[in-house]
Amino acid sequence: MPLASLDMSDAKVRATYNDIPVYEFEETAWTTPPDLSDARVALVTTAGLRTDGVVMWSNQDQSFTVIPQGEKHLTFSHRSQNFDRSGFNADVNVVLPMDRLDEMASDATIGSVASRHISFMGAQGDHTLATMRLDTGPAAAQILKDDGVDVVLLTPV
After folding, report:
1. Which of 33, 38, 85, 134 is 20 to 30 A removed from 144 (C-alpha atoms)?
2. HSE-CB of 80 using CA atoms within 13 angstroms
3. What's the pLDDT tens digit per position in 76-117?
4. Buried b / exposed e across 46-75, counting CB within 10 Å, b at 16+?
5. Which residues are registered as beta bridge partners of 27?
6. Radius of gyration of the chain from its Cα atoms, rounded to whole angstroms
7. What is the pTM of this model?
8. Which DSSP string corresponds to 108-120?
């Protein structure tokens, strides 16, 4: 079905998704990070960014894209057509503030910037997020852990 024929109005989306229960964790994970001036910081976004030129994520795709620090060839491939893309089109830092992290590292506000960042596609119909919770989320976390990341800045889109 062509996207233009889908009713994706705000009212329709709210009526469809507003009362869906979400997964609740029994425990809240927490690790005390070092001071920001000593911390290695990475970004995780739900903007659905791609580095491979794919125009749109597949429906229910809970995988992720690894984005090298400084990568400028990004495609805003978010599945939902309701998202206003004008901010991203004007400045990628709206959804993935890599330049801001570089500035913060330059002035020693943070210790360093991770070499890799992560992008998931945020519009998910499966609100249990089982694949993200049990598979791709831990895999993404391992990539960041292997890079020595202490702090993750989440930019939900």
Report:
1. 85
2. 18
3. 887 666 777 777 778 889 989 999 999 999 999 999 999 999
4. bbbbbbeeeebbeeebbebbebebebeebb
5. none
6. 17
7. 0.80
8. TSSSEE-SEEEEE
